[in-house]
Amino acid sequence: MGVFVVLPLVLPLTAWPIARLAGPRLHPRTATRVLSLVGGVLAVCSTLCLLLLMVAGTAQLPGNPLPDAWADPEVRAVVPYDEAVGQAALLVLAAVALACGQLLWRHGRVRAGAKRALTGLPPSRRAVLPDERPYAYALPGGPRGRGRVVVSSGMLDLLDTREREALIAHEEAHLTGRHHRFLLVAGLAARANPFLRPLRSAVAFTTERWADEDAARAVGDRRVVARAIGKAALASGPGHDLRRVPPLPAFAAAGPAPGPVPRRVAALLRPVPNARAWPPAGTAAGLALWTATAGAAASALSSANATLVLVTVLRGATTAL
Fold this sequence. Notes:
The protein is mainly alpha-helical.
């Protein structure tokens, strides 16, 4: 197996450039799908790599669940293994399983809590909660599996009619695009391999941008969506006074390294991004995209090669016995 079984553990580093450049250089829908796909492939290959190291390294240890024939001295001579590496891989796999299980448990708990909060309300597509705290979110599932848009009365009171339409359209875009699935894949990938954490942050941003663009198309006014986003963000933060909301250009240019919301507002103040545009290979975004694609492909090939070698060796050794 050699280096092929270890390579998938570090190849997620090849996705860092595209995680940084996908947001500003690709259409948000394309960026979300590319980042989620690359992250998912790299995470699966990384986990498979740990599994192979664990199987090869612990096959000779007493008490393992593998067939007894694998502990024969003749098998020990032909199966490449390292007990220390195998035990370490076992511990890392247990940590990965625990982290992913915790994320799934928290995901289910939050959804269950949100559904309990809607108990007694009519099963409509939109639900308004009588709450002075300003918030709005999209809840997957709900009536006929289409999901629900939940918004507080406090949030609606802060927005005018057009801004309310933009806010609702933004949350409905999350449901229509199934953005929670992309976020869940990115979250699981980040827990499977810490090198994939930049992709999780990038997917969180691109899904919001995707919903922004869908809302702008539904409302027909990009500035209205930008204003609704800015107001909602200021209302959700501590100590903000909406009576002194800065102009949109000033809000979008908040400091040398603006946060996600100012960057979203700035993007809405620019022309509509081309959904079919693909960065040329000679540009920074194009090189980053090809690097991430090559990393994912190499990771998949390395995992497949290591798996094939391990299965072939173990099967041949066991058959010989």
